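Pinned message: reference record for 3-oxoacyl-ACP synthase
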Amino acid sequence: MGASMPDPTVDIGIASLGFAFGDDQDVAATAGEYVPDPERVLKWGYRTFHRAADDVHATDLAAAAARQALERAGTDARALDLVVLATSDMPEYSYWDSAAALADRLGIERTHTLLLNEGCASGINGLFYVAAAMAMRPETDTALFAVVNRVSEFHRNRMNVFNSVLSDGAAAAVIRRGHPANRWLASESFTVPRYNDLISLEFGGAVRPLPPDGWSSRTAPSGYDKINEHFDNDSARLRRFLGERVDHIREVIDAACARAGITRGDVDHVIYTNDSPASITAIAKALDHPPHRTNAELSPEHGHMGAADQLVSLGVHLERGDLRPGDVVALCGISTGMQWCCTLLRI
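Predicted structure (tokens):
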């Protein structure tokens, strides 16, 4: 049972969760399609990832997850006071609002919408933005928070960006004022902007709209090359950065705990980005946290779904009965920016 703590700024909780995934793909059977050295990918420990059909896009996945969450909550979409959508890959169109598109898919209008695009941090920070909106608007009683990652294989090679297999999935949460379970406690985040270019794509934006002639994500240099280039191929600088990643995760969790009036020792479960099991276990060790109370077991079955990782893992743990009433869960991760973030929930 989690420790007693002060009430949060706004009393809200997750009433239901919904999910949608691309088709299951076997990593071992498909790695050779993405990289010339599949054994490198297999060492990461992933077994399955989700790949959406070519005609299934981010809004499709987000809408499917949202409908499931609404059905499970017994809530009609027209009862929503706020719709927040977080995305972590390329949008379907330029000059286009994906949150508005989701609201349209749900058949609602004249509802406040918000679009988040903070990469993998969106699924964690989004809960803070929902809490902030509901704190500032007392008439807002029910919100929908949807998170989606739909990889554009034109732009990204699923198995060659970093040590993760990128995956297509969406999660949605119906959040209600006064809901007694899965309560938001606190959120914290900070950015170290000198690392902003680490995994950026050099084209597709206003500076360089088109890729070089003959470019393909399947044959483009790996993300490792870009990271090494950022650190001037200096292995000592890279090692320092890797150490900072862990230090900053510990720092952001401690800061969120301080806001909630608890300590890291009061956290019962840590849900991190769907990194490799070895990486998640290393994070747990650095936090003095039991590895079996993380998402290390779940990550190999789903792959890295960008901003959707933490809510998907939360949902699986809830469905399996891994979390007890009163437990404190830390949703945490790292994102482009680079940004470190944490949101605490009390089950």
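Pinned by admin. Summary line: The chain has a mean pLDDT of 93.
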